[in-house]
Amino acid sequence: MEKTLAKLDGTWNDIEFEFTPHKESGVQMIRLNEDNFDLLENDQQSVNGMFASRYLATFEDRITFWNKALGAIGEIVVVVGEVQRQWSFLENLFIHSDEVKKELPKESEKFIGIDKEVRRVLKDGYEKKRCVAYCTQEWVLPSLENV
What we know:
Order of helices and strands: HEEHHHHHH
Distance between the termini: 39 Å
Strand content: 5-15%
Low-confidence stretches: none
Number of strands: 2
Shape: elongated
Number of helices: 7
Structural class: mainly alpha
CATH superfamily: Dynein motor heavy chain, linker domain, N-terminal subdomain
CATH topology: Butyryl-CoA Dehydrogenase, subunit A, domain 3
Radius of gyration: 19 Å
Number of domains: 1
Mean pLDDT: 95
Largest sheet: 2 strands, antiparallel
């Protein structure tokens, strides 16, 4: 267990998101590459298996941390992907279309707030770069779920 936990520390504290620029918006879109996503799933299974160990008490704090951290990474990767898809579609309509702004002024105004929040959340991910540092912040998932 100690070796597995040390491996998690060494691996996941260095894993970074990949970023791609979104058009000319200045926003960097976040994603976890496929190899790291597969690693995430395998490491989540390893950590879950540790909860059944008779040595759990010795490593419980670290196991609990990695269980929460890896779970948060998995959940945030899925949610941020969906938010980015929806935001990029709506951003094109509500920010770049004068016709939509005229036809739907209330919705356009509401989207300006959503746009600011999405940009803030994605900017923080780009600045943090590392999955664990970004995804273990308590505010990230609720912010993504509320936009």
